[in-house]
Amino acid sequence: MRIAFTGSHRVGKTTLAEEIAESLPDYEFIIEPYLQLEEEGYLFSEIPTLEDYMEQFNFSVEQLQNSDDNVIFDRCPLDLLAYIYSVGKKKNISALYEKMTTAIAEIDLLIFVPIEKVDVISYQESDLPNLRREVDDSLENWIGDFSNEILEVSGTLENRKKQVLDKILDMEK
């Protein structure tokens, strides 16, 4: 199974993805494109630019296309496209949206980690709260467009983890 986590920044997505990876030792855990690109020497702006998000988007699409089964992705092209849309001042993204849709068709379970109504994650002004909200709004609007199995999680880390593991068990039956 290919499992991908999607959500804005500072929602607990990576923490949850790492917990799930620990619970599924037969799965390969793929860190988010930002970290992989940084390890490969890509120099990001202090505040990521449209070009930075495009680079991550393309890298994420490649990751999906080149992956095998039993993989957990910390991020996927869907949320990176939401950043492109927000940072690009709502530019026309129809070609990128099509590319993203084709890529994420390879995902068996898409786990959406939204900003909770009572925000459980603390953040600072330097965490770009307006961008965080815009990306979350885009994801909320787009998430229903896909035929993938989708799980929206909420609550504490333990509750979220249980929701994901229960869903995986249910899908494996």
Distinctive features:
11% strand, alpha/beta, 7 helices, 173 residues, five-stranded parallel β-sheet, 5 strands, globular
What does this structure look like?
The model has no long low-confidence stretch (mean pLDDT 91). With 173 residues, this protein is an alpha/beta fold. The chain has helices at residues 13-23, 33-39, 50-65, 77-87, 94-104, 129-142, 157-172; strands at residues 2-6, 28-30, 71-73, 109-112, 149-152. It has 7 helices and 5 strands; from the N terminus they run E-H-E-H-H-E-H-H-E-H-E-H. 35% of the residues are buried. A 5-stranded parallel β-sheet has the order 2-3-1-4-5, with helices on one face. The two termini are 13 Å apart.
What is the fold's blueprint, element by element?
Blueprint: E1 2-6, H1 13-23, E2 28-30, H2 33-39, H3 50-65, E3 71-73, H4 77-87, H5 94-104, E4 109-112, H6 129-142, E5 149-152, H7 157-172
Parallel strand pairs: 1-3, 1-4, 2-3, 4-5
Tell me briefly what this model is:
With about 170 residues, the protein is of the alpha/beta class. The protein has helices spanning about 15-25, 35-40, 50-65, 75-85, 95-105, 130-140, 155-170, and strands at about 1-5, 30, 70-75, 110, 150. The protein contains seven helices and five strands, in the order βαβααβααβαβα.
Instruction: Determine the fraction of residues in helical runs and give it as a percent range.
Output: 40-55%
- The low-confidence parts are none
**Number of DSSP-assigned strands:** 5
Task: Give the helix tally.
Answer: 7
Reported for the largest beta sheet, the result is:
5 strands, parallel
Residue fraction in strands: 5-15%
Secondary structure category: alpha/beta
The mean pLDDT is 91
* Gyration radius from CA atoms, angstroms: 15 Å
Basic shape: globular
Distance between the termini: 13 Å
- The strand order across the widest sheet is 2-3-1-4-5
Give the SSE string.
EHEHHEHHEHEH
